[in-house]
Amino acid sequence: MEKLIITxxxxxxxxxxxxxxxxxxxxxxxxxxxxxRSRNELICIALQYALEHMELQL
Length: 58
Prior knowledge:
mainly alpha
C-alpha cells in the first residue's frame, strides 16, 4: 500500500492593512454588490492591474 504524503501548505496570501477614503470604500462596496465578487478580490485585481500598467518617472 502506498503512503499518503502530506506536504506543508504554501500560503501565498498575506494580510495587509491600509487606510483609504470612505468614498473609495463605498465605491468598492457598491461594485462588490453589483458584481458578486468580494471587495478584497476587486482590490487585488485593481492592484495587480496598476502594477502591470504603471510607468515610473524617476
